[in-house]
Specification:
- The chain is α+β, with helices and mostly antiparallel strands.
- Strands 1, 2, 3, 4, 5, 11, 14, 17, 18 and 19 form a ten-stranded antiparallel beta sheet that branches.
Length: 799
Amino acid sequence: MAKQEVTISNGGISLVLNYEHGASISSMVINGRKVINSADGIYTSVNVGGTVYSSLNLTGTPELVKKGNVISLNNIRYGAIRENWVFTISKKTIKWDIARSISNGIIINDAALPTFNFDSINTWEGAYQGYGGLAWFYLFNEKLNTYGVHTRSSNFWNSKTNDGLNITVDAPGNNVAMTYTRTNEDKLAYTIGVSQGEMRFKTDSDTHRRRFVTGRTDVWAPFTAKPGTSHETITLSAFNFNDKYGRGIFKGIDGDKVGAVLNTIARIGVIDSLHFGGNSWHTPYGPICLHEQYIAQMGLGINDPAYLRGYQTTLDFYRDHAIKPDGRVYPRWAYNNEDAMPGKFNDDGFYEAQWGILMDSNPDLVTNVAELYDMNGNLAWVKTHQLSCEKALDWILARDSNHNGLVEVMTDNESEKRGSDWIDIVWASYENAFVNAKLYHALIKWAAIEQQLDNKVKAGYYTQFAARLKASFNKPIADGGFWDAQNGCYDYWIDKDKTVHGRNMVTPVNFMAIAYGMCDDTQRRKTILDNLETLMVKENLFFWPLAMTSYAPGEAKRSQYPFPSYENGDLFLSWGAVAIKAYAEYNPALAVKYVKNVLGQYSKDGLAFQRYGRVKQDGLGDDILSGNSLAIVGLYQAIYGINPLYNRFFLDPHITPELAGTELNYNFHNKKLSVLLNDHSYSVSDKKFKVTDSKRFGFNATGDQLSYFNDNSEQASLQVKSAKSLSITIKNCGKQEVAWQQNGSGSLVYNLHQLKPNTVYQFLVNGKLVQSITSNASGNLVVNYTSKSASEDIKLTGK
């Protein structure tokens, strides 16, 4: 008797559907590589009352029907379930439609609708979730490690073989969840769950919200399946990993490692579809710190539109569930409440930390909203956060009781032994430079958004408060500020009795002061950064520690002594982006040095640690921080100069000669850009338009219009409408003269802005006068011109 099987293939994907004794897919080949090869490769099942019913053991004989590019397997019956499978083959996808009928309502303990048993836990390196998170199989270091999330799609990838498989589920009217398990046989079991209500986690009490479990596979709680017929469509498509996620051509630095860090470490703080943070889902209690201002910023380096969409939804969730009525933002969320102050948590898992009222959660939520807005350009979305961000800011601004521009935390002095920010077991009190630096950054960011939302009153208020804060921050310690000339740094905090603390060069405080523009004194910046580098070379540290010398006795939790220990002197890589930015503008070579150091450490241990010890520089801690990627995010933002903004792609490079020739692929506002960085020549292009300049500039292209933004102007200086491809190289851009070389021909319309008002300008092509035009009262003018040459020198000059 011939085997009862049929091959379903479109070239990129090949499946063998077996229906001899049951119904299953016994083989899957992706881009020529076999990833499933077993009788129980892919099948459906339910566990009802402890009994498992599956499509591997049917109560009847299924019927196969083939018609053109459609293959159907009907009358699949097991337990109370009846299914019809329909496979539709197209050039790029195979769609698997499942019609599932239940005659009577049942309680399902566990469901696999279906499950995919990949041959090995190493078949794929990981699976990107539809919301931008990652199931990273490197972390499945024990059998029966299981991770469950709420998503409708999964991108499995292997960078070594360059293979990828996308699986997307559409289940109208139902919810979808996915689970990943390392089996007892060291296979990877990937399971799709479909239910009428949201899939809940299996817990012993309502205080547990655990996504990752060990030694078991039952992540999900039982759910009820009502009688009736439901429909589920699973779309399978193969992809080339480098084509989909390739970052371009790197010079002077290991691009494979750059990609690996941003593809893995940067994403592991995404715990689930509504829970983005910096701590890994792999940790025992899975905390999310809302008092981390860099979660949106990591999206700049990750550069996956799915991450940005997922974080947008997450921020909506935080807006609705993590802000108290008075504007206080809960600083944390976790799998359980063990880290919470007694009674200081809500039903959604947000809480006040046991260490103190960590004040930086208020400005950090605002900063993340503002920076995500720059990356998605969605003004309608950011407007939905206007009232909540104002409330969060106003709550903390009210903490400036002495009206000196510096907000005060909840404690008056270090003897109260309560934390007040991210460095939570150092007893920073009263006027805290760490919190105020973050607040300044949030105020500047949000004031600009208030201006766009046409609330000039709030914009002015936040701008003025930021100015007062900056002025007070920069005063010498003798005058109530944080500048400590004796130690050449900004100190950490000042108690209410004017006692100054944290005079030990706390690096995040000083890096933020420089990176966020609070320290604009050239000599101070030089003093801080030069002194830091001298100390780093002396100790031969590969990365900056939280503090260069010890806190004074009593300033930190007793367990932090003797120095160095944990937050008193260990190396936390989460402050890499602000550090790289601080150095990139001052000494790019030093910034690149520490990026390379982090990549070198990745080669040794994968950066899969919470921190690094000061003495041995070895990985420590039972957590993994996605912030370990932030030096590489800083590479993108501050060295390569990639800064997506709400209305333009702003390129502000600080490259060293060894990096010249780097060509990056970058997703900006749903458009793929190419960024070429050479010595004093930088280009941005899409498929139609290209701009080159010798200095920083902004680029945007929509439809037939190219916009060039001179320097860091928010308003376009030059706009060109062209139905054909066009490349321009800027030679000069000022009020009196604008000059560029262009390649491309056809009918062109130039709109020039920021010129001298009511002034006659000459429009010259290759040195010859073509026409004279007068700018209007706003300094704008329009030139219509038909180019007949492939290359021309254009100049607009005022008389």
